[in-house]
């Protein structure tokens, strides 16, 4: 037990040093496989296991006994099917394979922009959520009952998972980086569930001023979610923001629709002392200078990009992770996989500000060769010294 506690203390120090701007003793390893992948790794049926809390500890334990990470290498489920089924969700549904998926869907009509801009919260509650969740498309009393039941189910499930993760963290001596919330850039929020990818792509051409006004209207709500609902902010307390739409916009569109309100959100978070954790999806190399100018010490997980340019632009200020292609673990030899890790470490580790992570998480065990994953993470653990 003493050895585990010391291991946990050492791992915690790696991340404390990293986030506070010091050079850790070695490169921290932060990644996770999706909950669905962990279920498969533990040998359970995906569709059945997501409804069975009795196997949750065993799934975590079996996965963590095989995978190395300085943080727990299995994600907590973000899309438990129970409350989505109770709400009659159209926005998050289970596929025939058992994966929870987000189909292309819109609930805000182009003709409703003015109403939305006037009071986004009221419209989301009164009109948009009932369009996304059939159980809320009822009388106010029935809606309150359905929402209350689903909310309790969600909290009960979340509490159970958090408790189980706590036991696993103590058993294996993982570091614990507290998280606070999940949010989006205002333009991404508009594109995600409200207007859809295709819908907002038309709107920026047909009604650009309405899109700008809608993003401005969303911004205070996103700041409230990411800043004001966190009573004890810290650079070690990260809020997660995945960045979706920017790579699909041209320069003028990015400057006009995406960056201004996103920058307001990040400025508010940093000013409040809140940690920021960005998943830089797809290829942001056209906009790397914008990311470099963000305030604070932001952790950025890159899906694609030139590691040398990213290091040149961000090194010394922000924290870089990602860029290791998950697909390589499926298609390459063990030696080739380790060589890729060496290449990225040589470029990104000097001077600090780097944690090892894959470019994306494995959502299925079909995404990776588990032996290659283990070999790469163990190599980084043993050889990635600053």
TrEMBL record:
Residues 157-381 form the Uroporphyrinogen decarboxylase (URO-D) domain. One of its GO terms (molecular function) is uroporphyrinogen decarboxylase activity. GO terms for biological process: porphyrin-containing compound biosynthetic process. Gene3D superfamilies: 3.20.20.210. Pfam families: URO-D. This is Uroporphyrinogen decarboxylase.
